[in-house]
Amino acid sequence: MTELVTYELNDGIATITLNNGKANALSHDVFEALNAALDRAEEDKAIVILTGQPGMFSGGYDLKEMQKGLKEAMALVKVGSTLTRRLAAFPTPVIGACGGHAIAKGVFVLLSVDYRIGVEGNFKLGLNEVAIGMTMHHAGIEIARHRMPAPYFYRSVVNAEIFNPESAISAGILDELVAPEQLMERAKAVAAQYKQLNMRAHKQTKLKVKAEYLATLDRAIEQDAAQSDLMG
């Protein structure tokens, strides 16, 4: 792996860590490294823990790349949507270990994995696209609709509401909270529990449960690629 993403395999559990500055921004290079790490996890048939840095899971897309122009922004969004689609259908369980803030694409990643553990503290989690002048893309709408309870879906996608860790559980962004120093210990405990699953049955059941959603998401990604209404 590159220094942007590290991969550590221990007893059938692969820990994939984002390490791209204080915002853990998601760029083309980061997505390339993430996909390479996920390739390794598939080869290792490992349960995945996906995490960031203390205090920051991810602040979303790399704004330097998004601000290059509409074409460049839409290209990055397509890569990101394809990555979250991969996470949603990943053959082994994926646990999100969120050590702090998660904004925009960082939240979409959390909405795409199997189980999400957050930490207590003064952290912000939410979809801020509308607040910063971005029209929500089709794929983002469908990712949020799939995982968020209806009232929170509207408040998040349309009103760009930002949540604290406690309310992020109600919003469907997180599943549980622990003290920051307990995050990785708890994530590994959940991963160890998931090792008891039959992985063939897990994979096939996941795909059966998500079949309609994945088809909808595929169409949404195609719609986004054909349109140019991301900004404003």
Report on this structure:
This protein has 232 residues and is of the alpha/beta class. Helices cover 47% and strands 18% of the residues. The strands form 2 sheets. It has a 6-stranded mixed beta sheet, with helices on both faces. β2, α1 and β3 form a beta-alpha-beta unit. The longest helix is centred in the middle third of the chain and has 19 residues. It starts with a strand and ends in a 6-residue tail after the last helix. The mean pLDDT is 95.
Which short descriptors sum up this protein?
10 strands, 10 helices, globular, 18% strand, four-stranded mixed β-sheet, 232 residues, alpha/beta, six-stranded mixed β-sheet
List the helices and strands and how they pair.
Elements: E1 5-10, E2 13-18, H1 28-44, E3 47-51, E4 55-58, H2 63-66, H3 70-88, E5 94-97, E6 100-103, H4 105-110, E7 115-119, E8 125-126, H5 138-147, H6 150-157, E9 162-163, H7 165-170, E10 176-178, H8 183-194, H9 199-209, H10 211-226
Parallel strand pairs: 2-3, 3-5, 4-6, 5-7, 6-8, 7-10
Antiparallel strand pairs: 1-2, 8-9
Binned, the helix content reads 40-55%
Q: Which stretches of 5+ consecutive residues score pLDDT under 50? A: none
The largest pleated sheet is described as: 6 strands, mixed
Structural category is alpha/beta
Helical element count?
10
Series of H and E elements: EEHEEHHEEHEEHHEHEHHH
Question: Mean of residue pLDDT?
Answer: 95
Strand content: 15-25%
Question: What is the rounded Rg?
Answer: 16 Å
Instruction: Tell me the span between the first and last alpha carbons.
Output: 36 Å
Read across the widest sheet, the strand sequence of neighbours is: 1-2-3-5-7-10
What form results from the Cα inertia axes?
globular
Question: How many β-strand runs?
Answer: 10
